[in-house]
Amino acid sequence: MVWPFVHFYDQIFQGLREKISQLEQKNTALFNQVWDLVAKGDTNGLSQFVKGHKNLLFLCNYEQDEFKGFSLLHLATLKNQGPMVKWLLQQGVSPMSCNAKGETPLQIARKNQSNEIIKILEGKVFSSTFNMKEILIFLPLDFLSNKSTSLSGKSKNSTVG
Fold first, then answer.
1. Which of 118, 114, 74 has the alpha carbon at shortest distance from 97?
2. CA 155 → CA 42, 78, 83, 161, distances in Å?
3. H/E element holding 96?
4. How far apart are CA 73 and CA 79, in angstroms?
5. Which of 30, 49, 60, 133 has the most CB atoms around it within 10 Å of its CB?
6. Mind listing the pLDDT tens digit for each residue in 43-94?
7. Which of these CATH numbers, 1.25.40.20, 1.10.4030.10, 3.40.640.10, 3.90.1150.10, describes 10-137?
8. DSSP letter at 148?
9. What's the rounded Cα separation, in Å, for the pair 100 and 68?
């Protein structure tokens, strides 16, 4: 004897599978549009496309073929799209992300000898790593005044007596 609710749940699950399939197709289409804009270097088009949906810049990692694990920054680097690389970095995309082979965008730029991209990425990586504003926050402010103690521990204004 087949319980009547089994047929009912089967219909519900079939409907859910269809909805999931539709969402996956829609997401794939969105992803492909973003991927194409980056590959072409169309910063204006990408800016308009992701307006209000900036998270797309961080979620579009390619998971197939030779581009496995590529972020949009990896792709822009590979396609030698300097203005796109700059724009993605300004939007907060990490220059330190690694693809499935463990390569950062900077390593890809060096492998391809893309001097313009290397300059852009090195500037961002090193400015991120050694951000002086962040370092200065941890320095005692009295080192900046005239009356401060020197690094040797003696007061600059003390007199020998």
1. 74
2. 58, 55, 51, 13
3. none
4. 10
5. 60
6. 999 998 888 777 777 777 776 677 788 889 999 999 999 999 999 998 888 8
7. 1.25.40.20
8. S
9. 6
